[in-house]
Amino acid sequence: MKNFAIIAAAGSGERLRHSHSKMLIPISGKPLLSYTLAKFEESNKIDEIVLVVRAQDLGKIEQEILKKNDYRKIKNVIIGGPTRQESVYCGLMAIKEEDGVVCIHDGARPLIQKWMIDKPIEMVNNYDGVILAIPAVNTIKRVILEEMLVESTVDRSKFWMVQTPQVFRLRKIKEYYKRAKRDKIKATDDSTILECYGGKVGILRGSEENIKVTSQTDLLLTEILLNRYNFGK
Fold first, then answer.
1. What is the pTM of this model?
2. Amino acid 202: pLDDT
3. How many angstroms separate the CA atoms of 175 and 159, rounded?
4. CATH classification of the domain holding 107
5. Phi-psi region of 8 (alpha: psi -120 to 50; beta: other; left: phi over 0)
6. Domain residue limits at 175
7. Number of domains in the chain
8. DSSP 22-73
9. Residue 16: its pLDDT value, please?
């Protein structure tokens, strides 16, 4: 059985207010997406990569990233949908096998490290899926949004902030994604879909450095970390 990776890189990046696609924004001289792809290419746990991109970005990604690097594991580059959930669905349907493991990761998290791929894959036999997350450190308020009024303060020790990669048994996640599409369930991460159907989701403590680039501040922090710790080198 194979271990697959789906790299979700079809986001618009509107919040960055950048003239380029988010995936092509240069960080220390290389496009953001290239750092992410390099880690999965280097991983001895990953056999094949499915890259999901926006239609309008495909040409530039091929020219500026794929043709300039010797990616041997990228077997499929496909066009995503209007939401992340729909893009991941497209990626899953592009995998013809039913058995195996799939690691789903945000292309906009370029600071991924080797253990973040390896450990969840090693753990997944005990679960239907394994996610990375970090404990909430700030005080969390429950808010009545219509009135912008604080309703209560919740116990933050019970709340963790989810990251990617998230790793799943391939047959299970494909089945649940199909059911979610049929049932019109909307989710902002992949493990939520498992939870909706009673799947068993394990959790592994991630890293505060595993930043998802969504703002100019994230870009700045990512560049600092890349230069300081030689991520992606």
1. 0.93
2. 97
3. 28
4. 3.90.550.10
5. beta
6. 2-229
7. 1
8. GGG-EETTEEHHHHHHHHHHH-TT--EEEEEE-GGGHHHHHHHTGGGS--SS
9. 62
